[in-house]
């Protein structure tokens, strides 16, 4: 794993490195085979000039490289959302708030990253621009996870310290888990959605991936424009729970081993962990029957584009968007009410716990070849995609917050441990995650 942002920033401030040299290293990685299909547009010359600006040195991001998902407006650039359909759209006239805040903090944008078309998949396949290969396995091309596929690989390879992305059903946490990095999904209301092409206006969240929890905390402070309430309280001061319903079903053996090993390490560090049923989780499928918010709200946004250019969409994405055409107004309004009632039941059931623990996804990254574009592989894609989204999407429906941190042993494919809770528990989740990250590190080294 490459050094995290904090470590690199300390080296810069100690005079042991310079931002221009760090940017050159990021550019070299971005141009390497490891980042094939990762960037849809690069801005290396502008990045060099910005890194050379000495004023950046005192800022939180210190003139270091960040990447932005092709979902966000950046002044002078077209926001195409990983699609050919919007390739000729007029360029943005200004940065969206998330990009503006990263730049104001000294972040140097080196490029726009690839993604599942219109952010509508947890797999990360893109038939238009190619699929970035997972950073964890150089021997066999594996899926990066999606929809923030390029963002994850840019961080995992060392091309960027922060990968700006979005999370509607797991699009930050899934690729973070599969690539062995950290992905934090904040409470959706904490970061403005302005200037981000929507998938679901109800569920969309603007957030980021990093290489450490402390970097995730800094990135969240910048994106949310608010200071965290930080705590060094030990794990023993928190009450944690593992929900048994659904989230532990059908785990890949590597995931099952890593998750159990993680619980053991956390208990050894003093954590009190209870297993609870939390049967309310099973109701998510009922709440989202018929495509849920994503299908209805994406169809409302895409219907004119589909009428004009539907044949140019990724067929798998088009199929899922068009499911929203069948939803009636009363069904959508019933969905809003059902979600509100479900959140209330979940909040009551989670009362007394500071965080819940689950595997981020139930599998390690499958090979790209088995899920690549092609009708003969559609059935496997339709099987894998909902599995990848199964655990993470619960938090989006909850309007909650969650973080995925690596928990695999050395030599294993990446596995994510997800810590989560309801809305506005962000600071507690991040503080617990920092303690958990430290507790898991020895177990990871010793295996």
TrEMBL record:
<protein>
    <submittedName>
        <fullName>Amidase</fullName>
    </submittedName>
</protein>
<dbReference type="InterPro" id="IPR000120">
    <property type="entry name" value="Amidase"/>
</dbReference>
<dbReference type="InterPro" id="IPR023631">
    <property type="entry name" value="Amidase_dom"/>
</dbReference>
<feature type="domain" description="Amidase">
    <location>
        <begin position="37"/>
        <end position="430"/>
    </location>
</feature>
<dbReference type="InterPro" id="IPR036928">
    <property type="entry name" value="AS_sf"/>
</dbReference>
<dbReference type="Pfam" id="PF01425">
    <property type="entry name" value="Amidase"/>
</dbReference>
<dbReference type="InterPro" id="IPR020556">
    <property type="entry name" value="Amidase_CS"/>
</dbReference>
């Amino acid at each position: 794993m490459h050094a995290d942002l904090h470590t690199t920033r300390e080296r810069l401030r100690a005079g042991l490195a310079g931002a221009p040299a760090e940017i050159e290293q990021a550019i070299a990685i971005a141009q390497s085979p490891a980042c094939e299909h990762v960037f849809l547009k690069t801005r290396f010359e502008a990045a060099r000039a910005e890194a050379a600006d000495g004023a950046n040195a005192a800022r939180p991001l210190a003139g270091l490289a960040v990447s932005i998902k092709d979902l966000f407006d950046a002044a002078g650039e077209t926001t195409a959302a990983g699609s050919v359909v919007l390739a000729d759209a007029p360029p943005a006239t200004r940065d969206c708030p998330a990009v503006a805040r990263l730049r104001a903090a000294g972040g140097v944008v080196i490029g726009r990253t690839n993604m599942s078309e219109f952010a509508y998949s947890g797999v990360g396949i893109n038939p238009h621009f190619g699929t970035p290969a997972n950073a964890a396995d150089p021997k066999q091309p594996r899926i990066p996870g999606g929809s923030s596929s390029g963002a994850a690989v840019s961080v995992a390879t060392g091309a960027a310290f922060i990968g700006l992305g979005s999370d509607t059903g797991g699009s930050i946490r899934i690729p973070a888990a599969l690539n062995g990095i950290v992905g934090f999904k904040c409470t959706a209301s904490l970061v403005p959605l302005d200037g981000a092409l929507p998938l679901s206006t109800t569920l969309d969240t603007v957030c980021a991936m990093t290489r450490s929890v402390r970097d995730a905390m800094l990135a969240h402070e910048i994106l949310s424009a608010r200071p965290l309430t930080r705590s060094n309280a030990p794990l023993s001061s928190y009450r944690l729970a593992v929900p048994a319903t659904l989230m532990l079903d059908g785990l890949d053996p590597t995931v099952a081993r890593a998750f159990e090993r993680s619980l053991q390490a956390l208990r050894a560090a003093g954590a009190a962990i209870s297993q609870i049923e939390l049967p309310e989780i099973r109701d998510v499928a009922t709440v989202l029957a018929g495509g849920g918010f994503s299908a209805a709200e994406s169809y409302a946004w895409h219907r004119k584009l589909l009428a004009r250019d539907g044949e140019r969409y990724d067929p798998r994405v088009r199929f899922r968007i068009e499911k929203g055409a069948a939803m009636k107004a009363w069904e959508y309004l019933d969905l809003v009410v059902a979600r509100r009632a479900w959140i209330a039941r979940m909040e009551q059931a989670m009362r007394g716990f500071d965080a819940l623990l689950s595997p981020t996804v139930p599998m390690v990254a499958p090979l790209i070849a088995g899920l690549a574009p092609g009708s003969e592989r559609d059935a496997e894609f339709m099987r894998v995609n909902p599995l990848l989204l199964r655990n993470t999407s619960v938090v989006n429906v909850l309007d909650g917050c969650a973080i995925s941190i690596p928990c695999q042993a050395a030599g294993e494919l990446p596995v994510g441990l997800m810590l989560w809770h309801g809305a506005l528990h962000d600071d507690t989740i991040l503080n617990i995650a920092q303690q958990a990250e430290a507790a898991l590190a020895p177990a990871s080294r010793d295996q």
